[in-house]
Amino acid sequence: MTAVRARWTLTLDEPVVEPSKDLVGGKAWSLWRMRSLGLRVPPAFVVTTEACAAYYAHGQTLPDGLADELVAGVRLLEQELGRTFGGTERPLLVSVRSGAAVSMPGMMDTILDLGMNDEVEAALAAEAGDPAFAAEVHRRFCGFYGRLVLGCTEELDDLPDVATVRRTVADDVAEPIPADPWAQLHAAVAAVFASSRSRRAMAYRRRWGIPDDLGTAVTVQAMVFGNLDQQSGTGVLFTRNPVDGAREPYGEYLPCGQGEDVVSGRVTPQPLTHLAERQPAVHAELLTAAERLDAEGRDAQDIEFTVQHGELFLLQSRPAKRTARAAVGIARALVREGVLTPAEAVRRVTAEQVINLLRPVIDGDAASRAAVLATGAAASPGVATGVVVATADEAAATPGSVLARHTTSPEDVHGMIAAAAVITEVGGTTSHAAVVGRALDVPCVVGCGEGVVASLVGRTVTVDATTGRVHDGEVPTHAVDERHDADLAELTTWAEDVATVRVLPDDADAGPELDGPVVDGDAVAPEELEDGVPAVPPGTRAVRGAVFSTPAGTRAALDAGVDTILAARRLPVLLTAIAHQDTAGSTP
């Protein structure tokens, strides 16, 4: 069976022809990939990025014809599952998920449990034999819809029941949550489109140089319930450790919960061993699927899954966001495993990641003498010192501060980008704070305990996110030498074979290897710099100085035809050069 393409939507029913990731987004593409491999995935269809572009082109309204295509897509889900959207017997509920072509974890909105109303709650209660479960699903849906679609600013997660959530939303936004499932679906799709241009999404794209006009696809997928009973749960599995790159499963599992509970960080989940001990067959099936996805994807994978009444469902698989240390370790491991060539491996690591990896580390003796104010799980390693602030806006206004939160949400991303480090009171190593911290390579310690924020605000602390400790005051650090790191040394050797420029150590021993004069960028007066980079005279063969070790300086030297750069740290310069030559189409 092939994918069925309408104007604005695409089915993902085990297609033979691979859909374009630019058209369907990373999330829907991963569903196609997993279903094509025969893995168990809840059925879904996708509203394409073209529909998102049309939504903005026509004054933020759904394009003509999309409503009819949404009906057609839902009918396919109903046929496959024998359920009815808005039905009073065997009701179908769906999730409405964002999915950009470029992975942006936690940046855009997802609405779960959509299709709920009073009649559907009664039908779900009868089917499950558990009115409390159905009421909880309804309460969760009202919270998602009220916050993400209607824009309610009140805290809804801890409200006790549906009636209270509805009343709070209506009082705040003067608009009720609709009972019509189709009205819910149309508004949710529009809300996900709109979230692609939220402050947090735009801040993330600026941080990584992602174009602002990519938009998002919207995946509409049949719900499975990790909160159904004690044989149900939800979790996240990394096929390789995203902190240090070790070849081992890494993740967490939350019994009787939904995925949002894990990602939000409101609840601290159990280690994956919890699933292995209680449902060994499910755990074994999960690991088998993970190995297959790791091999097929030729990279470490971040896998979201749900267990519903003892049955495993995979919801997403994507290349895992990882720390700089893990990026280097995974690249080397994939070469050893014969998955990548050395030339491919060096293109999996960025110059910025290596620069982050070479950040100073805490002196062991100094750490043993420094008072420990808090401890938690090391989610994204590194060391940073700064004054603790309690809001993302404060962190954005004072770059280099330490952001401390009860738990982070997508609304905190602009502050996380500016912060030197992030601390949370609750949440595990697959929570929003942990995943985004690794994506940004910001030191992050999670799950430090209730009351930590109040005890730290205004204090200068040193966050050692390698050990998970928060120390009082400024703790001395020492520099890291790339030549003494086995991972970086091997990567440097590989990069030398790929880069078209020679990069030598900037020390006295390099002199005899050079022919002719060397332009010293650090000797150029500031007023002679253009965009922070000195002009390179025609015919210059070699340059030196910290300015030419920056990405802009390296690119300027290459564009001028320089064939040798002297740098205190060689690997970041080599990786910048490789990326630049690839962009220029001069890959050897």
TrEMBL record:
Keyword vocabulary terms for this entry: Pyruvate, Transferase
One protein family per Pfam: PPDK_N
Origin superkingdom: Bacteria
E.C. code: 2.7.9.1
Segments forming domain Pyruvate phosphate dikinase AMP/ATP-binding: 22-59, 66-285
Gene Ontology terms for molecular function: pyruvate, phosphate dikinase activity
Residue span(s) of domain PEP-utilising enzyme mobile: 399-468
Presence of the UniProt keyword Lyase in the record: no
Protein name as catalogued: Pyruvate, phosphate dikinase
Biological source species: Actinomycetospora aeridis
Lineage of origin: Bacteria, Bacillati, Actinomycetota, Actinomycetes, Pseudonocardiales
